[in-house]
Amino acid sequence: MTLSKNKASDLTVSRGAGKNFPTMRNTTDLRQKVLQASLALIEEGGLDRLSMREVARKSGVSHQAPYYYFGDREAILAAIAGEGFSKLGQSFLSAIARAGSDPAKALEGIGRAYVGFALRHPAYFQAMFRADAVPLDRYPDVRKREDATFGQLVEEIGKVFADQPSAVSLTISIACWAMVHGLATLILEGTLARTVGIPRARQRQMANEVIGTFTSLFIKDRM
Fold first, then answer.
1. pTM of the model
2. What kind of fold does domain 79-218 have according to CATH?
């Protein structure tokens, strides 16, 4: 099995002499194909379902093809986590824009965006927050995206608690993050449906109601 670049934008995958397989005219196609297959595998069976061999099979490429972009399984998960933080950050920005000049609405919108992202993209969510599988300290670019995303929450909290020291705003930000992360996890793992009996079809609405109540109590008398 060999991988060769004919041009900067070409990838030829061949197995054995004289057996050439279809050339991807843009190597980014292969990268995205591998990432999409990886996301599908995670949604099917969690992070334990992911292996380089399974990714290749799901992608419909040779066993060695995924190594063209990713050195190992961990590198794939790190790439997925990086994309996830970028997508989550964009969701936060959209929520803040919709809130206009109302910090309380922005804070509630961020909470809803967080849970909504987790429910729409469970595979991304798993890769982003499983330190045992993806030690992000090894991937500075992904860490930057993670920090930037959390920084958006801290900034909005700072607007609501502008009269408080920055350390207080940080503590409150962690509390808000813990609440929405815990809520998302309870839904994704089925714990909420099992213990409270809320049907799956209503869980997103229920999550929004919880976030709204939490936000109003949290910032009571501050706006």
1. 0.84
2. Tetracycline Repressor; domain 2 (1.10.357)
